[in-house]
Every structure is written in structure tokens, then in C-alpha cells.
């Protein structure tokens, strides 16, 4: 269970988040929508304890993470994996080494065990054959798949966080990434692995999410299901989701 209680964050004079509160279960599939610079990525960083709020509390399974030490935070972070904006692969490392990176960092595995684990992860995301290629040899869609595989390498997360996973991809490739995201979040609540996808692509959000939050001026201007979203009377939000109306 995730709980934001009156979370505020200020950068200089800019109020990025202004007393944001919500609750979510790990098995939910949530899309966080909003224009450029409204604080979507910031919200994910707060959730992982990568930055601390100026005010408010962030509870994960009932424990406030805002005052935690790095060591305590590492435990909390095991609930999540994150696929960063742009995929952010290491250019100079092969696909295998990109995916193996955290395995090498955190575990003491033999070369065979690493190879086996990487192969299994690449199979899961549908690009087993790309193991020995370099990032520059991959299409945009394949790069995103590698980024997803890498995020899953170190742990079995209860929830996957995606920051703009389909931005910059053509519609068909974006669609295959949405399918992969859904596949990785199969099953029935409460056992299901959930996801939070941060995006400004509304058509992709509705493919994977069941709950939608719209961020504006530091607050959650909308929080509800698809039915509620498409029947909103908020004029700006209607313009934002125009493609699906
Ligand atoms: N370290 C920082 N120092 C100062 N300002 C920052 C910092 N990080 C982010 N900001 C500002 O905070 C605001 C929110 O940033 P954030 O990256 O969360 O936006 P976003 O909603 O993810 O945008 P985008 O859709 O462009 O990715 C932006 O105005 C950004 O310029
Ligand atoms: Mg962002």
C-alpha cells in the first residue's frame, strides 16, 4: 500500500507539488497524466525515496519513508522496479551487460547464472535474440524492451513504474510496449503485480491503466476510472484527453 499524505515539494520559488494526497495498492494499474513539467517524474522519485518532500508523509506499507536512511530505503525500493524516461541504456555496453548490470552489482553470481538469468529476462520481453547486440543496433522499441528487462533483473517487484515508456515510438511499436506492460501485470488483484505509468500519451494510458490521475498546478485535478475520465466536465482535462473522446 502506498499513501501520500499532504506531500509538497518546492524547487526554489516553484511549487511543484502542493499538498498531494492519494492512496494506492501495489496491484493497481495507474496512469499519471499531465503536461510537461507538472511533476510526474518528481512523483515517482518521491515514491522511491530518491528525493524527499518539503512537507507531508509518504507511507509504504504503513511506514513513513521520508525520514528513512539509505539502508532502510533500499528495502522499500525492492517493492518497485523503474523504467526511466527514454529507457536510458548504457551505450557502451551490450544488451546482455545492460541487463546484467544490477545483477553484477548486487549479487554474487557465476557467469553461467548471469547468462541464464539475462536470457530468461530477454525471453520474457520478447527479444532473446538481441542478447549480444549493442544498443545502437536496436530499434527504439527493442531499446525499451531492454530497459524493461533491466528493471526486472534485480528483484521481483510488486509494482513496476514506467516513466514515459512509449514516448518517441511510432504508434505500432508503442502498442507492442503497452501489450508487454499488460503482460507483465497479469493476474487478479490482490496477487497481481501492478504498475504506475507516467505519460502524456492518453491513448497508451487507456490501454494499460484502470485508474487515472491528472496532475495540474501541483495538485491531482482528477483521480478516477476510465468512465469518470471520459465524462469529466473539466474543460482543460477534456482537451488533454481529446483523442479518446
Ligand atoms: N532538480 C531540480 N531542480 C530544480 N527544478 C527541478 C528539478 N527537477 C525538476 N525540476 C522542475 O520541476 C518541475 C517538474 O519536473 P518533472 O520532471 O517532475 O516534470 P514532468 O511532469 O515529469 O515533465 P515531463 O513531461 O517533461 O517529463 C519542472 O518544472 C522541472 O523543471
Ligand atoms: Mg518526466
List keywords for this structure.
6-stranded mixed β-sheet; alpha/beta; single chain; 245 residues; binds magnesium ion; binds adenosine-5'-triphosphate
Q: What would you say this structure looks like, in words?
A:
- The chain has two domains: 2-79 and 157-244, P-loop containing nucleotide triphosphate hydrolases (Rossmann fold); 88-146, no CATH class.
- It has nine helices and ten strands.
- It has helices at residues 40-47, 70-77, 95-106, 111-124, 140-153, 171-183, 202-208, 226-230, 235-240; strands at residues 2-11, 14-24, 29-33, 55-60, 63-64, 80-83, 159-163, 194-199, 211-216, 219-224.
- The radius of gyration is 18 Å and the shape is globular.
- The two termini are 32 Å apart.
- Bound molecules: adenosine-5'-triphosphate and magnesium ion.
- Residues 40-41, 85, 163 line the site of magnesium ion.
Coarse morphology: globular
Low-confidence runs: none
* Topology order in helix (H) and strand (E) letters: EEEHEEHEHHHEHEHEEHH
Approximate helicity band: 25-40%
Radius of gyration: 18 Å
* Order of strands across the main sheet: 6-7-8-3-9-10
Look up the CATH topology of the largest domain: Rossmann fold
The total of beta strands comes to: 10
Look at the structure and give the CATH class of the largest domain: Alpha Beta
Distance between the termini: 32 Å
